[in-house]
């Protein structure tokens, strides 16, 4: 299971995304589940061919309009031999009953999605093609964010700090970047004890008012554990 999202109106309503099983929904706190996307996640490629997928990497629920659900496709946690298609983001306007291909991320693997409430709400998608944003304004358009970010690379994780009004994104083997406003237009690389190269993946975790934690998988046999307490105190340790 790669993803889980909760309806903010009712904690008994959950959506689960499987690496090769599509999106599932429960309305009774997990006692029973219903598959939602067995035949619906189909996108027309640039070649004109249709391609479908059941590979889910991320999920998000619009906190302003919770019936709007986003499913990011592709598997960011491939373990072995079979890899489902990454086909960007699909959007459901009705709590998962129907789905449509959303915008033009195309064949990207979507590692993480977060919705920032507002008028309009803004969706951020961290993908293997970089970081994208989308406004719920009817235009169905994703914008790639590049100012201060790597030109290319895998945006593997993303978190928001609502107390500071800041965003953080991690790029595999390229470091962690921060935007000091919730638009995500401009970014700056973070330094200090935080890794900037020589690792495969970083997982970000929001720690409330106390700061952010950045556990980084640096290699197969080494793990960096770094706790960054805002604004500038850093503790780190290595272990095998």
- Please, how many domains? 2
Helix content: under 10%
CATH topology of the largest domain: Methylamine Dehydrogenase, Chain H
Overall morphology: globular
> What is the CATH superfamily label of the largest domain?
YVTN repeat-like/Quinoprotein amine dehydrogenase
Rounded to an integer, what's the Rg over CA atoms?
18 Å
Rounded average pLDDT: 85
The strand count comes to 23
Please tally the helical runs, counting DSSP H or I stretches of 4 or more residues.
0
Distance between the termini: 27 Å
Portion in beta strands: 35-45%
Largest sheet: 5 strands, antiparallel
Show unreliable segments: 217-240
Write up this protein:
With 240 residues, the chain is an all-beta fold. The chain folds into two domains: 1-139, Methylamine Dehydrogenase, Chain H (7 Propeller), CATH 2.130.10; 146-240. 0% of the residues lie in helices and 45% in strands. It is built from no helices and 23 strands. The strands form six sheets. Strands 19, 20, 21, 22 and 23 form a five-stranded antiparallel β-sheet that branches. 38% of the residues are buried.
Which keywords apply here?
23 strands, 0% helix, five-stranded antiparallel beta sheet, disordered C terminus, mainly beta, 2 domains, 240 residues, four-stranded antiparallel beta sheet, Methylamine Dehydrogenase, Chain H
Can you describe this structure in just a few lines?
Helices cover 0% and strands 45% of the residues. It has strands at 3-6, 14-18, 22-26, 34-35, 42-44, 50-52, 56-61, 69-73, 89-92, 100-102, 110-116, 122-127, 130-135, 142-145, 155-161, 166-171, 175-179, 188-189, 201-202, 205-206, 212-217, 223-229, 233-239.
């Amino acid at each position: 299971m790669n993803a889980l999202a909760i309806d903010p109106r009712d904690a008994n309503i959950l959506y689960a995304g499987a690496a090769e099983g599509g999106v599932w929904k429960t309305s009774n706190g997990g006692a029973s589940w219903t598959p939602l996307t067995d035949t619906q996640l189909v996108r027309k490629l640039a070649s004109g061919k249709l391609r479908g997928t059941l590979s889910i990497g991320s999920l998000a629920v619009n906190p302003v309009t919770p019936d709007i659900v986003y499913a990011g496709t592709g598997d960011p946690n491939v373990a072995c031999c079979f890899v489902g298609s990454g086909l960007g983001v699909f959007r459901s306007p009705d709590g998962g009953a129907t789905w449509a291909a959303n915008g033009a991320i195309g064949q990207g693997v979507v590692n993480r999605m977060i919705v920032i409430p507002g008028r309009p709400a803004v969706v951020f998608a961290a993908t293997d093609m970089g970081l994208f944003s989308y406004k719920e304004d009817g235009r169905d358009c994703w914008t790639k964010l590049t100012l201060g970010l790597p030109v290319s690379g895998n945006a593997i994780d993303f978190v928001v700090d609502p107390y500071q009004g800041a965003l953080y994104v991690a790029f595999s083997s390229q470091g962690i970047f921060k935007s000091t406003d919730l638009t995500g237009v401009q970014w700056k690389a973070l330094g200090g004890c935080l890794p900037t190269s020589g690792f495969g993946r970083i997982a970000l975790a929001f720690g409330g008012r106390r700061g952010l934690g950045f556990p980084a998988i640096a290699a197969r046999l080494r793990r960096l554990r770094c706790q960054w307490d805002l604004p500038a105190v850093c503790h780190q340790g290595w272990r095998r």
